[in-house]
Design goal:
The complex is a heterodimer of chains A (about 220) and B (about 250). Chain A has four helices and 15 strands. Chain A has helices spanning about 150-155, 160-170, 190-205, 210-220; strands at about 10, 20-25, 25-30, 35, 40-45, 50-55, 65-75, 75-80, 90, 115-120, 125-130, 135-140, 145, 175, 180-185. In chain A, a hairpin with a 5-residue loop joins strand 10 and strand 11 (about 125-130). Chain A starts with 8 loop residues before the first strand and ends with a helix. Chain B is globular, with a radius of gyration of 19 Å. Chain B starts with about 30 loop residues before the first strand and ends with a helix. In chain B, about 45% of the residues are buried.
């Protein structure tokens, strides 16, 4: 069995016994009792009990690295699709480019894919993005694969172990967006192999011992 | 011919106390729920409830359009109940009619109670309920499947809304009417609850009930709803269980 006690799946409205833990994500309380509000697996972290959802959209968090696509251009900012409930805005001042009098179209066009970070989320959930940090850039060439945003942490693995395993074994350049967009660059057949593995991780995300199983698959395919 | 409003001479309950499809007064039709049947939707569910076949797709939360429908403090729930042209004996004229608009509204309002809408200001959560085959009680079947689809889409909810209908045939209160019973019975009472708190989130009545009969019908429905709630949970778990067994198969190779 891969489903040990720690990976028990809970459903909305199911009572959670915190057992001295603090109330974390995915838990609400009513009449002094605690209940789950999403379908997910319970995990404890730093004395907080959290419910890691099994499905759901991407909800931006400050400093997340995401991959966005330009969907529209305003006078001084780009409007980006970051696969969340709201579009993201990238202001020209938050980019390394300094040509204010220039047409924004000449820098990033509609349809361009960019690796960004979430800079700020306002009270009304307006999401401002930034390109001013190490590693952030426009992505050119390569392939885009969409995965479920809730499964991204499993693709990264503990301290990046999973993604590093994949990179080493296949030699494909991988850029992971926290919003479930994965950019891959390399020979087509290798990219397809990585795609297959990503689909496998997505399907098996709620089970444990994944990295070892992925390693095995990678070795077998060689 | 039966005159409108008159008692029909069709017997719906036989001498042994069984209904025309062989059920007892407190017996449900067979129910089967399946989760994640559509790939493009954020969440989906399919329900077969007796002769009812209903498909539900959930999208969102996403920016609400047109913009004036946005609520700056919470999400809006947009349920759309739609009957396929081929879902009933005589072709149903496609498109929303008075009945479909009403059902969409009551379903939206029932789901709104359970969903944590305040977490997603300015968005809409769209629930598309497509009735492929109708056999009485489609609004409740649709609502029951809709809350399963919402969970499948990962939308935060207090609990899963679940419903059941009760009615009166041949002067007796019975659970979960089928088509003949609905057409020739005296009353129909669809109801939906939040099982954890027993809150009633949808209650409609067509026909006449005395106060005692109404209370009896509500009690029957509540009991049945708890049972259906378990079916919902099993269906959701099965989505992840089936992958377990698939994998087990892979390992034995």
């Amino acid at each position: 069995m891969y489903l040990d006690i720690e990976r028990k799946i809970v459903l909305p409205g199911e009572e959670i016994s915190l057992e001295g833990m603090k109330q974390g994500n995915g838990i609400y309380h009513d009449n002094g009792k605690y209940y789950s509000y999403t379908m997910g697996v319970i995990q404890t972290y730093n004395s907080y009990a959290n419910i890691i959802p099994l499905a759901g959209k991407y909800y931006p968090v400050r400093n997340d690295r995401v991959i966005g696509k330009v969907i529209d251009i305003a006078p001084s900012f780009w409007i980006m699709d970051i696969r969340g409930p709201y579009p993201g805005f990238l202001h020209i001042n938050d980019t390394p480019w300094k040509n204010l009098d220039q047409d924004l179209n000449k820098i990033l066009q509609v349809g361009d894919t960019v690796f960004l970070k979430v800079n700020e989320i306002t009270e009304s959930r307006q999401t401002w993005l930034s390109l001013k940090d190490a590693g952030l850039r426009k992505l050119e060439g390569g392939h885009i694969i969409m995965v479920q945003p809730t499964k991204v942490s499993r693709i990264i693995g503990k301290g990046g172990s999973m993604v590093n395993t994949i990179k080493e074994a296949t030699g494909v350049k991988v850029q992971l967006g926290q919003n479930g967009v994965v950019w891959l660059d390399g020979p087509a057949e290798k990219v397809m192999e990585v795609r297959k593995i990503l689909r496998f991780i997505e399907k098996e995300a709620h089970t444990s011992g994944l990295t070892d199983r992925v390693k095995k698959i990678l070795e077998e395919s060689r | 011919m039966i005159e409108l409003g008159a008692q029909s001479d069709i017997k719906l309950i036989n001498e042994e106390g069984l209904r025309n499809d062989g059920r007892k007064f407190n017996e449900l039709r067979p129910i089967r729920i399946e989760v994640g049947v559509l790939n493009r939707a954020d969440g989906s569910a399919y329900i077969e409830w007796g002769g009812n076949k209903v498909l539900v797709a959930v999208y969102g939360p996403r920016e609400a359009f047109p913009k004036h429908t946005q609520n700056p403090s919470r999400a809006i729930i947009n349920a759309r109940y739609n009957m396929a042209a081929f879902s009933v004996d005589e072709r149903k004229r496609p498109g929303p009619d008075r009945r479909a608009i009403e059902i969409s509204k009551v379903i939206s309002e029932a789901l709104e109670v359970a969903v944590f809408t305040e977490q997603f200001p300015r968005t809409s959560i769209d629930v598309y309920i497509e009735v492929l085959q109708a056999d009485a009680g489609t609004r409740i079947a649709g609502l029951t499947a809709a809350s399963v689809a919402l969970v499948d889409a990962g939308i935060p909810m207090k609990d899963m809304v679940v419903g059941c209908a009760a009615g009166k045939i041949d002067g007796k209160v019975v659970l979960d009417l089928n088509k003949e019973e609905d057409n020739f019975g005296q009353a129909d009472l669809p109801m939906a609850i939040i099982p954890r708190t027993d809150e009633i989130v949808l209650l409609q009545m067509d026909g006449n009930f005395s106060r005692e009969e109404l209370e009896q019908a509500v009690e029957l429905s509540k009991k049945a709803a708890t049972y259906i709630s378990n079916l919902q949970r099993e269906a959701l778990m099965a989505k992840y269980k089936s992958q377990e067994s698939e994998k087990e198969g892979e390992r034995s190779e």
